[in-house]
Amino acid sequence: MNNPGRVLLIRPSALGDVCRSVPVLVGLRRLYPSARIDWLVQDSFAEAVSEHPALRSASGGGVIPFARKRLGQLHVPTVWGELVSFVRGLRSARYDLVVDAQGLLRSALFTRATRAPVRVGFVNAQEGGAFAYNIKVHAERSLHAVERMMRLLEPLATRAGVGAGAEAGVGAGVGVGVGAFDMSLYVPTAARAWAEARPELRGRYVVLAPSSRWASKRWPAGSHARVAAGLLAGGMCERVVLVGGRGEEDQCGPLLEVAGSDARIVDLMGKTSVGQLMAVLERGALLLGSDSAAVHMAVGLKRPLVALYGPTDAARVGPFGRLGDVLQHVEPGEALDHKRDEPGATQMARISVDEVLRACRGRL
Questions:
Q1: Domain 6-180 is found in CATH 3.40.50.2000
Q2: Do residues 278 and 49 lie in contact, with contact meaning Cβ atoms separated by under 8 Å?
Q3: What is the rounded CA–CA span in Å between residue 21 and residue 17?
Q4: Is pTM beyond 0.90 here?
């Protein structure tokens, strides 16, 4: 289909993956400048992309919020009706083209439910999701996640007659470099106003994102506390602002203890929306973060960054185009398995406080 009128991008979660899926949206807009483009995204992550100009265009478009927590409660009788209504809404939108950048069973089911005449996804989608697509794209799992998703646009660029995909800035296998992948994120206006009104977010501050869902990805909380003290004592910043998800405060005991006695350490752990987190990062002089969504946000907001990585392959899932900002010490032959505490905890512990402070100073 060379000129679809209505296009749907499916990438519901996780937050970091949503942030690094933005180049797919930009590529779709470049391919189809007059189309209405929607993005199906988990409702709690919608602010990450809601202000993107590729969605908020003259031809319309916007986010389609998926209430995952609610619609995932299938043991609740009323939820079935809500889920059916959601799926009917996808079908009634009459999309001409759907691109599934998630590649899981749930996203594949949504793709199939649209009944769009053109449905694009990975031939090696997980959980058997490839059944939903009539254009199946091979993309090696060894590719960086961003490059892998951009492969989904290659057959569309060919159909649209875009020479080698270059004018559209799409495709990892068509000779387009990192510079063609537009990672830019846009902070919601209300969130920016919220940040501007907070006195503790004025002046020079470092954002510290110490937490992670996975224990194997966490740098010791005591080390974070020592770095925060070192940043302040060394005059590298006026304040350190702590950010993280709700329920992750228990991971940061020593750091929060220091924050309780030092007004220069601002505790925003679990106290920001996605949009507000973006605004905090946008105003910050630097993000120091573990392998988490904040790292990918910092890339999209073009902020200085120091990323602490352990049992994950930074070449595939690290900050795209910013691998020089990653600190990681993995010995030859060691496994990269973030779902197990070891050897991840050992790998993270190899990162020293002194090298983190040196890296921060170099970027500040």
A1: yes
A2: no
A3: 6
A4: yes
Rounded Cα distance, 327 and 310, in Å: 8
CB 210 within 8 A of CB 252: yes
Asked if residue 217 lies in contact with residue 248, where contact means CB atoms within 8 angstroms, the answer is no
pLDDT at 71 over 80: no
Given the structure tokens 């697509």, which residue do they identify? 133
CA-nearest of 100, 301, 277, 78 to 186 is 301
Cα–Cα distances (Å) from 177 to 16, 24, 144, 170, 257, in that order, read 22, 15, 13, 10, 45
- Which two structure tokens, joined as six digits, stand for 169? 């800035």
Query: What sign for the dihedral angle of Cα 164, 167, 168, 172?
Result: positive
**What is the reported pLDDT for 256?**
86
DSSP notation for 272-297: --HHHHHHHHHH-SEEEEESSHHHHH
Fold of the domain spanning 189-363:
Rossmann fold (3.40.50)
Residue 20 burial class via C-beta count within 10 angstroms: exposed 0-12, middle 13-18, buried 19 and up = buried
CA pair distance 93, 165, nearest whole angstrom: 28
Predicted pLDDT of residue 217: 95
Contact criterion met (CB below 8 Å) for 187 and 279: yes
Of 43-47, 56-60, 243-247, the range with the highest mean pLDDT is 43-47
Are 316 and 145 contacting, i.e. CB atoms less than 8 angstroms apart? yes
Question: Position 103: which residue type?
Answer: G
Query: Are the beta carbons of 17 and 43 closer than 8 angstroms?
Result: no
Written as one letter, the residue type at 7 is V
Which sequence spans correspond to the domains of the chain? 6-180, 189-363
Q: Give 119-163 pLDDT, tens digit per residue.
A: 999 999 999 999 999 999 999 999 999 999 999 999 999 887 764
Interval 57-68: pLDDT, tens: 766 789 999 997
Q: One fold for both 6-180 and 189-363?
A: yes
Separation of alpha carbons 62 and 67, rounded Å: 16
Q: Coil, strand or helix: which one is 183? A: coil
